[in-house]
Amino acid sequence: MPSIRVVLVEPKNEGNVGAVARAMRNFDVRDLVLVDPCPLGDEARKRAMHGIDVLERARTVERLDDAIRESDLVVGTSGIKTESERKFARIAISPRDLAQRIGPMGGTVALLFGREDDGLHDGELSKCDLLVTIPASKTYPILNVSHAATLVLYELFAAKATKKGPRTASGLEKERLHDALTALLEATKYPAHKDARTRIMFRRLIGRAAPSKWEFHALMGVLQRATKRIQRLETKR
């Protein structure tokens, strides 16, 4: 099981920050990063209870990119989901599915929880390898951020006993894979209006697949070989 980093994006309620710290302490997660948070005071400390050490050790950053740096997998959470393949940016899996997928992983998984009023924005979702949503009533599917964090962390904690499988590709290796796709798209003169959507779709596909190191090297070989062949053909023209 990888190391878990909880990232709260622009939290507006200090009590929620404290409650998340308490939930993290319940499930042995200590790495908390706050992106441009509200001021934290007595209410946050009171709600943290025995998670006060998590709260006191929390790092504060100005940008999301700083919070997810050196992560091997970035997982966004959302109460809004879709079943439509065309709206792939909102296709989500359950916390239990997430726990099963990342069980064999090493490295660091960053769990992103959005603002209390409007969650994670589209630009932030585009940075995520996976999206998770908690099954809830269709009439009121949006959970309080601390409740959502508790449920997701519980599923990850409960899955720790899962046997370790093949070594998965690291975050750096997967970024090389995304770079290889970008090079192939450029070599094939892929339509510009489809480029961004295709790269996000590929990121989500790789995130859901959690490729092993062998699979990573095989796929890298295919992409790089195709790119070099196209470039040689272009040079001969």
Compose a concise summary of this entry.
The protein has ten helices and six strands. It has helices spanning 14-26, 42-48, 52-57, 64-68, 95-102, 122-125, 145-158, 171-187, 192-209, 213-236, and strands spanning 3-9, 31-35, 59-61, 73-77, 108-113, 130-132.
Can you give a write-up of this model?
The chain has ten helices and six strands, in the order E-H-E-H-H-E-H-E-H-E-H-E-H-H-H-H. With 237 residues, the protein is α/β, with parallel strands linked by helices. The chain has two domains: 3-161, Alpha/beta knot (3-Layer(aba) Sandwich), CATH 3.40.1280; 171-236. It has a six-stranded parallel beta sheet. The radius of gyration is 19 Å and the shape is elongated.
Summed up, the helix count is 10
Arithmetic mean of pLDDT = 88
Give the helices and strands as they follow along the chain.
EHEHHEHEHEHEHHHH
Fourth CATH level, the homologous superfamily of the largest domain: SPOUT methyltransferase, trefoil knot domain
Structural class: alpha/beta
- Globally, the shape reads elongated
What is Rg? Answer: 19 Å
Poorly predicted runs are none
Share of residues in strands? 5-15%
In the CATH hierarchy, what is the architecture of the largest domain at level 2? 3-Layer(aba) Sandwich
Query: Sheet with the most strands?
Result: 6 strands, parallel
CATH topology of the largest domain: Alpha/beta knot
